[in-house]
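Two entries, shown back to back:
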Amino acid sequence: MSGILQGKTAVIAGIANRWSLAFAIAESFSREGASLVLTYVNDKQRETIESITSAMPVIKMLPLDVTKDEDIAGFAEGLKALERPIDVLVHSLAFANREDLSNPFIETTREGFLLAQNVSAYSLVAMTRAVAPLMPEKGGSIMTLSYLGATRVMPHYNVMGTAKASLESSVRYLAANLGPRNIRVNAISAGAVKTASARAVKDLTSLMEFAKEWSPMKRLTEPAEVGDAAAFLASDLGRGLTGNIMFVDAGMHMV
């Protein structure tokens, strides 16, 4: 690939550190020529993101706590202030209480269930509603990050599996809503990668060893592979894809 995102502006939410899949996506987008708008939750996270993306073409940093409607509104206003179309939105956000991941699913609390749904699934709907009106007439690309636990029972994934199932369903309904405006909505279902959020999953090491042994490619997913798949979806090369769950997991989904 060479410059397939030249001239595009992409919003990326979910960078926590260098091991985040959102960071790998930002690297791929930068290489392909996109200008980036990044979000952060607090000042400490902003400092971290600024330090690791200093060599990237970041044109704006915006505060965003997706559990607060006023933050979503401020996020939308911050994007409008750029006075340029937003071509791409990358939603890479997920959260669940650690105890709701480590305890049996039947013990999930009401509060824990709703929190996982709010941060991990509803936030895509809220962010899409804020960004879609700012996309150009020719359309745009919206994507999120999922995992195989959305459709299969994975050890210790528990409440996050239900949140990802909701997320994938939201992708389909948003794709149907926005299709007439040529806005594409897709998800990348990535293989097990040791990100900050994944570390909250109990016994993650065993899960990753299982994936390495049983995946058809006999290896784990590399973050850069997810980044490059995202670049494809964001580019005009992916113009015919919407409502899809794209598996980037070394083939683990078919085992």
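entry 2 starts here
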Amino acid sequence: MNFEELKSILSTAEESMKKAIQHFESELVKIRAGKANPQMVDGIKVDYYGSLMELNQVANISVLDARTISIQPWEKNMLQPIERSIIAANIGIHPQNDGNIIRLFLPPLTEERRKELVKRCQGEGEYSKIAIRNIRRDAIEGIKKLQKNGMSEDASKDAEEDVQNRTNTFIAEVEKHLAAKEKEIMIV
């Protein structure tokens, strides 16, 4: 009957929920927890001869120690545009340019700043949960349409229960990531 359509709805919902988790993980990485991480500068665009390029496409990014990121441009004349882009990105770190490389020194986090970062993490977690719940809603609407088109009520209820179980699993995963990130941020 509508088994293929149902299977499609369930697999689409699961794939979308996995993507929501992946996006959440990538957002958490950008929130610094006192340790230097090259991914903190992901998404920063640099004006490279009139076109915007990702920072990692115009420079080598490495971690020198727990609190220092080094950015070595492939062309020396890119130092100023990279420095301007980092300042414009407003990541809370001021670049130090020595004429050859740019260093980003991460200041130690104050208690107040740590709490702000935890709130930001929780906000990202909430966005992810909302996305997952929206995916659940869309899947359940699709299942209800199938029921109207002749799928049995039992099969419909089982499918809705399956979607709810998957939703619970992914929301629990968001909570697990949040707890780990909060612990990482609050460790002094």
